[in-house]
Amino acid sequence: MKWGHGCDRRPHRDDSPARSLRDRHEQLVHHLQERTQRYHLFHLAGHQPPPADKVARLARAGLIRMLDLLGDTPALVLSDLGEILAQNRAALLLTGDHTGFSGDRRYIAYRWFTDPAARAVTPPEEQERHARRLVADLRAAAGRRTGDSMVAGLVDRLQAASADFRRIWAEHEVAVRRADRKTLLHPRVGRLLMDCETLVTPDQGQQLLVLTPADAEARERLELLRVIGIEEFPTGATDPTAR
After folding, report:
1. Could you confirm whether domain 17-123+177-228 is CATH 3.30.450?
2. Which residues does 66 contact at the CB level (< 8 Å), separation at least 6?
3. pLDDT bracket for residue 104 (50, 70, 90)
4. pTM for the full model?
5. By C-alpha distance, which of 163, 100, 153, 99 is closest to 131?
């Protein structure tokens, strides 16, 4: 994610939300680079890196503050296994409430592969690509959390529940995305083309997903959504990670 810099070179204190987000982003990038180098050294030495700690079920305080700073920009906090831990109001308007699920339905990948309604909000021409990206993300998380029974159990249950998941998982594709473009089919305002940027915490256990309109039409529909509000909006109506 690129953050703009002003042209005024005079000393001044910038306390704007953009500056706060930019500083936090730079810190996260620095820690992520250190984490990646550490994992690389383990592999060069012929050792497996230690398993990552199990992810907390609560969004971290710093990420919650960033949700508030983003205001009318839809944003969500997710675990590395794809559980949505927190959403700001703009994200609730755009995607519905995804924080109330229990069991394996907490995980976006599980809902995608076991619930046809989860796939119906993604255009048919994008569904295969999205399925592959969900699986690749999960495999990347499994690689970081080697020996974690929570991850292994989720993968086993997905393989038992979905032939599509088994097919894609067998291809061993691994991917970690930080920026992407996706289409959301919203039940009230229709099709929205959105850009998404992802910031990760230093241990890669949680991430902040920020969604912005990719074109003028999506921007107008998002503005309309802010006006008509959240009344009668179905829970979990759209998949915010349908990237």
Report:
1. yes
2. 20, 21, 24, 75, 199, 208
3. very high
4. 0.71
5. 163
